[in-house]
Amino acid sequence: MLVLTRRENESIMIGDSIEVKLLDVKDHQVKIGIAAPKDVAVHRKEVYLAIQAENQQAAQAPRREDLPKLIPG
């Protein structure tokens, strides 16, 4: 993990197209802004993990075409 120190209104660049900017620091909270291309998904980690879990569930669910195989008859 790379650890960098930034002050308000300073940025970090990730590659050539993603900028992470420190916008505000108050008490124990930091507000950041992320400028990224539209084709790059940006989520809070808890949202990202929820999406991953949902995708995993969907991948394991029986498909419609498999339903006749699951029903005895």
Q: Tags for this entry?
A:
73 residues, alpha+beta, three-stranded antiparallel sheet, 2 helices, 3 strands, 27% helix
Describe what you observe in this structure.
The chain is of the alpha+beta class and 73 residues long. The chain has one domain (11-63). Helix content is 27%, strand content 27%. The protein has helices at 45-60, 67-70; strands spanning 11-14, 18-26, 29-35.
What's the quick description here?
This protein has about 70 residues and is of the alpha+beta class. It has one domain. The chain has helices at about 45-60, 65-70; strands at about 10-15, 20-25, 30-35.
Q: SSE layout and pairings?
A:
Blueprint: E1 11-14, E2 18-26, E3 29-35, H1 45-60, H2 67-70
Antiparallel strand pairs: 1-2, 2-3
Gross morphology is elongated
The helix-and-strand class reads alpha+beta
Helix count, DSSP H or I runs of 4 or more residues: 2
* Low-confidence region ranges: none
| Rg computed from alpha carbons, rounded to a whole number of angstroms | 21 Å
Widest beta sheet: strand line-up:
1-2-3
Largest pleated sheet: 3 strands, antiparallel
Helix content: 25-40%
Distance between the termini: 56 Å
Beta-strand percentage range: 25-35%
The tally of beta strands, per DSSP, is: 3
The string of secondary-structure elements, in order, is EEEHH
Mean pLDDT, as a whole number?
A: 90
**How many discrete domains?**
1
